[in-house]
Design brief:
Protein name: Serine aminopeptidase S33 domain-containing protein
Number of strands: 10
Radius of gyration: 19 Å
Order of helices and strands: EEEHEHEHEHHHHEHEHEE
Structural class: alpha/beta
Pfam families: Hydrolase_4
CATH architecture: 3-Layer(aba) Sandwich
Organism: Liquidambar formosana
Distance between the termini: 6 Å
InterPro entries: AB_hydrolase_1, AB_hydrolase_fold, Hydrolase_4, MAG_DAG_Lipase
Oligomer: single chain
Number of domains: 1
Strand content: 15-25%
Amino acid sequence: MEFEYLEEYIRNSRGVQLFTCRWLPFSSPKALVFLCHGYGMECSGFMRACGTTLASAGYAVIGIDYEGHGRSRGARCYIKKFDNIINDCSEFFKSVCVQEEYRNKRRFLYGESMGGAVALLLHKKDPAFWHGAVLVAPMCKISEKVKPHPVVVNLLTRVEEIIPKWKIVPTKDVIDSAFKDPVKREEIRSNKLIYQDKPRLKTALEMLRTSMSLEDSLNEVTLPFFVLHGEADTVTDPEVSRALYERASSRDKTIKLYPGMWHALTSGEPDDNVKTVFADIIAWLDKRMDDENDLNVQIVHHSDPPVENLVAMAPPTPLNRPKQQRRRPHASYLCGWKGRRTHYHSAM
């Protein structure tokens, strides 16, 4: 199926310039899928396979780089308040949903690692808005194996406002632990948009507090979800996903654990494993599109403060050149913004 790729800068309510991107099928999409990337990651490169795969399957895929991440402005990987990420994503995602061509489309969240926490908090912010979520190795509970001692947390909390941006939090090399395929591991290391330094003090504490808060409210999760986790994951323990599945109040919930797979299910495994994972994700989404019990889609009206769009930047080199580009009307608009497009063609 053919699709096109679009990049755009917007400005959040705090005046910070944020990068956004979209993979859009030429035909009317089955539904909207909104990407929530992990800590230190970004959408246009790291999550490109996710965007292209789901767009080839007929879904409109929309991503945003959080403040300080990827191509967005702000102190690198500094999370002053986790709520800022949630509010930025909510405002942008809803500004897409309110567009005329998407108002009657189903809306799904897709979160990987820390992005899983973002997705769950977006659901918590507006429980009735989202039709489902795909959660890949989500950060929604701190494993008992790595939970810091309360005394340590207390000491760090006392100095977080004095040295919030200091990179003093010791951590192991997550890339070595998350990406099984050695070639893909080196590709990740060469991606300069991915943060690979030590976590900043306030960032680490915000992530800890967010995880602990989510852990205490897993029973409040009510949306349909599909949680996936590698059984050999040492970055986020599979017990995290099991706890979510067991404690969530959702009537429609699915869990799948993959023997021998690591943390980066969609980007760090051998190709055959990645194809298996994406096939499972698409099958889950497709089933929710065919579900006769949930045919009514609420038409949305955007009430959050509008995001400010900026001039679009030049798109990256496409993964695959189309055999034939389909012409669009002159000066057409996508998602309310005009910008340059890159066309792709897929055999899927």
